[in-house]
Amino acid sequence: MATQQLASTAAGDRLNQWFSQWFSDLPRILPGLLLCVTLAGVSYAIAAWPALNEVVPLSALTVGILLGVVIRLCVPMPATIEPGIRWTLYYLLRAGIILLGFRLVLQDMLSVGFGGLALVLLAVASTITLSVVIGRALKLPDTLSVLVGCGTGICGASAVVAVDGVIKGREQDVTCAIAMVTVFGTIAMFAYPAIANAIGLSEPVYAAWAGSSIHEVAQAVAAGFAFDQHAGIDASLYKLSRVAMLAPVCAVLAVWWRRRAGADEQADGGKTGSPFPMFVLLFVLMVIVNSFVPMSETVHKTLTTADSALLAAAMVAMGLQTRLVSVARLGWKPLFLGAVVAVWISGLALGGGLLLAG
């Protein structure tokens, strides 16, 4: 009993210290935080603009990072906002990934069947592996290759930033990977319905193809409903099954990265890499809660809305920290890598969809 009381007291003390530190840092981080939140609101307004949606439907996350990049490029940033931008990118990003779990329900994932889950697993694993192999052949850093592979294979920008929490890539790697998944995901979103109509794909095949291969959740859902209502629902289920791969992929990458870093640092007498990030474990917990704990529609809507807002603010912060010169120095190789893995997962998903339907 005494041990439990001591542990509880210690945890309370740590929490009090955290809040005290946060309040003392608030004046320093508030300018950058307010800028990111304000621009996130602007991103939502732009993403919801009907004229834009008719031409190129974009999520608030994609608009947020683009807006941040443009502002960083065109407007001198005062030093007073930098601490808040860094705080937003670190804390709000992790909070957004945690709340992303409220968009997933384990029962929905199982509804695609054993064959559908096998297709999703193969698509995710093979795309990430192929990205690393090709990236090394192109002499690109593993951080960039892993981020491109995960963004393509799992769920676009959200996967990129979540995996970056494990492997700690460079800012230009993260921005470049998000650019790749945005470009090729948008192309797929428009191309898939046209191709499906041209070759006469059935609804089950198309849903498996779109849901198992298009990059962003919003892109996959939009492409699904562009075919028909039922395809939109089924494509969403395949896509959410891929999103659920985020946690196991992060776990595998954490082990690989720790061993990789340990091998490098052992030669230098250093320590092994950082542990598995807690926010990914909390993401898994939220998926379990959302799957088995009843909650009102109002509460659920509030949580998912908060998730979108947090991630949009984090994307703005990422854009504001991006230097386009660093991204441009990467050259044509990331574009080639993004194209190859996009074609790979598309072909694999189409073949898998035909096999499942047959």
TrEMBL record:
<feature type="transmembrane region" description="Helical">
    <location>
        <begin position="61"/>
        <end position="81"/>
    </location>
</feature>
<feature type="transmembrane region" description="Helical">
    <location>
        <begin position="308"/>
        <end position="328"/>
    </location>
</feature>
<feature type="transmembrane region" description="Helical">
    <location>
        <begin position="118"/>
        <end position="138"/>
    </location>
</feature>
<protein>
    <submittedName>
        <fullName>YeiH family protein</fullName>
    </submittedName>
</protein>
<feature type="transmembrane region" description="Helical">
    <location>
        <begin position="278"/>
        <end position="296"/>
    </location>
</feature>
<feature type="transmembrane region" description="Helical">
    <location>
        <begin position="335"/>
        <end position="357"/>
    </location>
</feature>
<keyword id="KW-0812">Transmembrane</keyword>
<dbReference type="InterPro" id="IPR018383">
    <property type="entry name" value="UPF0324_pro"/>
</dbReference>
<comment type="similarity">
    <text>Belongs to the UPF0324 family.</text>
</comment>
<dbReference type="Pfam" id="PF03601">
    <property type="entry name" value="Cons_hypoth698"/>
</dbReference>
<keyword id="KW-1133">Transmembrane helix</keyword>
<keyword id="KW-1003">Cell membrane</keyword>
<feature type="transmembrane region" description="Helical">
    <location>
        <begin position="240"/>
        <end position="257"/>
    </location>
</feature>
<keyword id="KW-0472">Membrane</keyword>
<feature type="transmembrane region" description="Helical">
    <location>
        <begin position="87"/>
        <end position="106"/>
    </location>
</feature>
<feature type="transmembrane region" description="Helical">
    <location>
        <begin position="144"/>
        <end position="167"/>
    </location>
</feature>
<feature type="transmembrane region" description="Helical">
    <location>
        <begin position="29"/>
        <end position="49"/>
    </location>
</feature>
<feature type="transmembrane region" description="Helical">
    <location>
        <begin position="174"/>
        <end position="195"/>
    </location>
</feature>
